[in-house]
Design goal:
The protein has helices at residues 2-20, 23-30, 34-41, 44-59, 71-89, 92-103, 109-136, 145-157, 160-165, 174-191. The longest helix is centred in the middle third of the chain and has 28 residues, at 109-136. The protein has 208 residues and is mainly α. The chain has two domains: 2-55, Homeodomain-like (Arc Repressor Mutant, subunit A, Orthogonal Bundle), CATH 1.10.10; 61-191, Orthogonal Bundle (Tetracycline Repressor, domain 2), CATH 1.10.357.10. The chain is elongated. The protein contains ten helices and no strands. 30% of the residues are buried. Helix 8 (145-157) crosses helix 10 (174-191).
């Protein structure tokens, strides 16, 4: 039942917006009663928050990335991460969810907070953890991991997210996604060369 309600709610919210959606319509589409919906999620707002949490969990952007043993493995991992992120976040339904969070920013700020924490925040944390482990094994400069993660993401998106939100472009094709991920990875690694032997950490044991 929960899965049916979330599917119906996601469809309704993205098509009609938060204000235009109503719980009766969501319940009818999910083939449940309004009482069932409220028992499961508490309110329309709670249903929307649950939709976002369910969607972001399914994207797998918070999963731990493998610890790279050398620069080649780091490059491959970064490019794969970038490709997956672009593919998932560029989907039209995801763009619709971001637009919805923006539209509800003042009335329901928790919607944006959940989207930020479970979506963008989770992917940034996974990337920062990867970069911290790469620095720990001596294949990347020991800088602030969260700042390096932000830098990589800026290179990856290059304004694409804003263009998607404004409806100026369509979601990129697979070839364009791969090109962007490779370009961002090469640019990032040029900005952060492998440390010299004197600069490398004494311990080569990766962080747990």
């Amino acid at each position: 039942m929960r899965k049916r309600i979330l599917g119906a709610a996601f469809k309704t919210f993205t098509e009609k917006g938060y204000t235009g959606a109503n719980t009766v319509e969501i319940a009818t589409l999910a083939k449940v009663s309004k009482r069932d919906l409220y028992a499961e999620f508490g309110s329309k707002q709670g249903t929307l928050v649950a939709c976002i949490e369910s969607w972001t969990a399914g994207m797998g952007l918070s999963q731990e990335l493998p610890t790279p043993r050398n620069r080649t493995m780091l490059a491959t991992t970064l490019a794969n991460f970038g490709s997956n992120l672009l593919k998932e976040v560029s989907q039209p339904v995801v763009t619709a969810m971001y637009r919805l969070a923006i539209a509800e920013a003042k009335r329901s700020p928790e919607v944006a907070r959940v989207l930020e924490s479970a979506g963008r925040g989770a992917s940034r944390k996974a990337l920062a953890d990867l970069l911290a482990r790469a620095a720990a094994v001596g294949i990347l400069e020991a800088e602030e991991p969260s700042e390096m993660a932000e830098q990589y993401l800026a290179l990856l998106w290059e304004g694409l997210r804003v263009s998607l939100l404004m409806g100026l472009v369509d979601a990129p094709e697979p070839a364009e996604i791969e090109r962007r991920a490779q370009k961002a990875t090469l640019a990032f690694l040029r900005l952060h060369p492998e440390p010299s032997s004197e600069e490398r950490p004494t311990s080569r044991t990766p962080a747990p």
